[in-house]
Amino acid sequence: MSETPPPAPVKLKPFAKTISKDEMALAKKLVDDGQGHLFAHWKAGKESKKIKAQMAALMQLHKSYPLEEGLLSYTKNARDLLAVSKAGKNPLEGWIPSVPQGESLTVGTPEYDEFESAGLPLLSKTGFVLVAGGLGERLGYKGIKVELPTESCTEICYLQYYIETIIAIQEKYGTVGKTHLPLAIMVSDDTYEKTNTLLKKNKYFGMDKKYVTIMKQEKVAAISSNDGKIAQDEADKYKIECKPHGHGDVHSLMHSSGTAARWLNAGLEYCVFFQDTNGLGFHTLAASLGVSSKLNLVMNSLAIPRKAKQAVGAVCQLTNSETKEERTINVEYNQLDPLLRATVSADGDVNDPKTNFSPYPGNINQLLFSLKEYVENLKETSGVMAEFVNPKYADPAKTIFKKPTRLECMMQDYPMVLKGEDTKRVGFTSVAADMCFSPVKNDVISGAQAQASGTHPAVAFSGESDHYNAVAKIVRSVGCKVQIGEKKTFNGVTMIAGPKIVVSPGVCCQPGEYKSTFAGGGNVMITGGSVLILKGKGKVTINSLKLDGALIIDTGGLKSETVFDNLVVENKGWTEKAVVEAANNPEWVKMRGFVMEKSETVEIICSHHAGKPYKWGEGSVGGGVVEPKEGEEEDPKWAWAKEVKEEEAAGGEGGGGGGGGCCVIS
């Protein structure tokens, strides 16, 4: 069989008047790079608009890739990485794993309180980076994920919740008029306009727009072969096939936009990177800052305990057997077990008998950086992360791809570009997943399948349930008696459905703040089917509460302060009502499978009273004061509270009591 003749030389000169000088220079470089196929279909005097559009797309790809040679650097990296992939080389060969430095903490313990207290003053010196590049199509939602409601009781969207938390931190721990905590949001072509529209429509949810930075991530060219050929659209050769480069681009954007350097110059000391639909991520921020400060870390990964062989990447320290170089990085779960077996443990990834968890904590991609070292490193690297490629081969010889691939990078691979002693200053803060990690990333079918196989469903219903349960767990940790609600099933996913406790960040934004709000400890009792919503920014002290129903307390503004003693609320409350799939409901409702049916509610509106605490129940606010009902203490609905052991309510039977009478509202 005769060999295929080489393609005819590409002649670009006839197009000198169609494209600019810069575009012509790039086209010539691409031809020299083996990319002549990109121009082989051009015909002089024809399709000039399409030619111009194609060159504009190539120029954009060239300029947006952060290395010096732009698109030429990208194709070179592609060839190098594809050669490694074809050869089947193990990138972890020669590295020995060990457990990295870090702290494993439990909310409500003295150790946790110590780290949180150390981190609280650092909250006002922290910038926030939201990695929000995706649409919600995978979830069954056509909009952007950050506009999805965190839960159904208040319907506050994720972006509003994040911004209100940042504002609360600023007001609680900063200096009035001087502290302005910034937010940077990484978006994509798909989400850029919708994110801006959401912010503008809602007046940035109360944040000064001067302190909001939108950073748009560009795509990279798809690669169709091992020799690094740039892929064209099969239906239209004038179009370049492009794909996402991965969330590792956030680092180069923090550098190229000048955001990281600007924050450092403004006096900030840390920056935290967080995900778009993990509403629990900020609960443990102060404790993580405390760990970073104590261990002098340049990078701190918020992590969760993971079971051995669980499908979650693990935070590991790796030491090169020859050079003794150290790296603390994320190792994918399917790489960890064989790596351990080949080096330090014949048993591989197994649980520690003392904790029943793997010694290697699970990475959840919430990262905390020391800003000074971060900015210095960005100057050295331009924020370019190590790339990888994962082609799907169509033949055993690995010469043909099933479909075009692309280079990718991940933000958690930042330690791979560290040098010197900074490589030893990477660690973790591990906290139970039910306190810090419940992403919404699956559609209802995938979520139900995941739960059936023993994995967290990661759907809208589970995210909402976990949002309530995390707050309930914090309230229990300060000694309150909070009953566990019943399990309910919607869209094939089963979760604990109560009690539904929603606390505005303006009231409490870190676990330690709950102690003064729920000061009554064991005198605060909430049944498993109840709803408690604390809105606003005011200071509230609940010394005694019995809640069996739905209660909303609007705490008022920053200067408002209200004390509640012997408050009893009993009503029909709220509950989930299943929706018919074909019904005309919003997509975010269909994703959950229910609407919140609000039968009866008590709402108490607090207000400012001349700079002094107002003891609720001394006036006519909220329905007045009545005498306790005879035999109320023996009501069987509260029998469960008497059975709560002191060790289950960490604060014991402390606090509260005192005047004001017993306010019974039903």
TrEMBL record:
Record flagged with keyword Transferase: yes
Primary enzyme class: transferase
A Pfam family annotated for this UniProt entry: UDPGP
Co-factor requirement: Mn(2+); Mg(2+)
Keywords assigned: Nucleotidyltransferase, Transferase
Compositional bias of kind Gly residues: 651-666
Region (Disordered): 646-666
Alphabetized SUPFAM superfamilies for the sequence: Nucleotide-diphospho-sugar transferases
Catalytic activity line of the entry: a monosaccharide 1-phosphate + UTP + H(+) = a UDP-monosaccharide + diphosphate
UniProt GO BP: UDP-N-acetylglucosamine biosynthetic process
Domain of life: Eukaryota
Molecular functions per Gene Ontology: UDP-N-acetylglucosamine diphosphorylase activity; UTP-monosaccharide-1-phosphate uridylyltransferase activity
EC number(s) given by UniProt: 2.7.7.64
Family indicated by similarity: Belongs to the USP family.
Protein name in the entry: UTP-monosaccharide-1-phosphate uridylyltransferase
Organism expressing this protein natively: Triparma verrucosa
Species classification: Eukaryota, Sar, Stramenopiles, Ochrophyta, Bolidophyceae
